[in-house]
Specification:
The protein is mostly helical and 222 residues long. The chain has nine helices and no strands. Helix content is 83%, strand content 0%. Helix 3 runs parallel beside helix 6, helix 5 crosses helix 9 and helix 6 runs parallel beside helix 9. The protein is globular.
Length: 222
């Protein structure tokens, strides 16, 4: 399973490196979203700084939707999805590989968005370890849940509009936990952000487990 996961993740990342969709399209889109948020709250800089964690993760969610759709769209033509079914690869490995590739792309975008948040919103870092742990756990949860629901919607004609409807209610706990965890990491909350990081970790483990066992049947149905 792990060998197949490495193969699938490498395939998706090589395709992305050649097409540069994330670099040339998704990254500018993400920065534009942050810029629009900054313009909307520009009259109240204090409120903008307080809202920065939530705005950051909302931008990450929008990028995750694009990343998941892209991950399955590249296999939509020329019978590539059928080839994936017939390849003999472990379905759990395929799931982990696609989720890992999406997570890697998201982490790169989060670094870019984090720099944009500091420049545009004027945030200050209080607990860097908590911030990194929350980011890793939230990214794993978003990638795992996105891969599960992405394969569910991949074979449908309305997949572009159905995927956000399926995914956004499910990842609401991730957005809540990541936002609250980052508020603590940025010194905006007196509560312990580690409890929110534990929630994010539980969500990631739950959807990784579901994906490993359910991806095969979902891929066949799609």
């Amino acid at each position: 399973m792990w060998r197949d996961a490495v193969l699938v993740a490498g395939k998706d990342l090589r395709i992305e490196a050649r097409s540069r969709v994330t670099t040339n399209q998704v990254a500018p889109y993400a920065l534009l979203v942050l810029l629009l948020f900054g313009i909307a709250f520009d009259q109240n800089r204090g409120l903008l700084a307080e809202a920065a964690p939530g705005l950051f993760w909302l931008a990450v969610l929008l990028c995750a939707l694009l990343g998941v759709q892209r991950s399955f769209a590249i296999e939509g033509g020329d019978g590539a999805r059928d080839g994936l079914r017939l390849s003999g690869l472990d379905p759990g490995g395929v799931f982990l590989g696609k989720a890992a590739a999406i997570a890697a792309e998201l982490l790169g975008l989060e670094v870019l968005l984090g720099a944009g948040t500091v420049v545009l919103f004027g945030t200050r870092l209080h607990d860097p370890l908590l911030l990194v742990v929350c980011a890793l756990a939230a990214t794993a949860g978003l990638s795992a849940a996105g891969t599960v629901y992405g394969v569910m919607a991949a074979g449908l004609r309305v997949r572009e509009t159905l995927l956000p409807l399926l995914l956004m209610p499910v990842v609401a706990p991730v957005l809540l936990g990541a936002t609250e965890g980052w508020r603590s990491a940025l010194g905006q909350s007196a509560g312990s952000g580690w409890r929110w990081s534990a929630l994010l970790g539980c969500f990631a483990v739950l959807y990784l487990t579901i994906g490993v066992f359910a991806f095969g049947p979902l891929l066949e149905d799609g």
